[in-house]
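Quick note —
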Amino acid sequence: MQFSLKTAPAGALVVAATLVFAAQANAESAYIQQASSARAQLASPTVNRGTGNAAAIPSNYWVAPPEQNIARNAATASNAARTLTIGNFNTVAQLQAGINNSSRVSVIGGNRNDVGVLQGGNDRSNIVMVGTQGMSVGVLQPANSIPVNMLIARLPNGAIVIKR
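Predicted structure written out below.
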């Protein structure tokens, strides 16, 4: 192969420029770097977690994300809402604010019933509806109110019994 003198310097310049720019290009990876195995390990139990001193925390200390944190006193700071619906087109809404709420709603054999429970804190409620149709029941409990236990049933003769 022969190169002419006119094209050889231009070709060498292109090759040299390519090598220089390739050496200077430092692109970041398109992939997210995963945590190393050392950082994923739990900290030793001898670390004092309550000091807040950054010097006391080792570099491999693992911090749980907020969604994995548990309330300090989980035995007393809980809310529970349980629903059992057997029937057609029943609607149950249970809204709880504060702590220590417990609510149970059962709609058995009914249709087109609406039940709403609103609790403010430290409240208990049990509502059972049996064989009812098209009824709306609302329970509003401000914080620290007395427990609500209610049975609403339609008897075979068509009468409705409300037992509290």
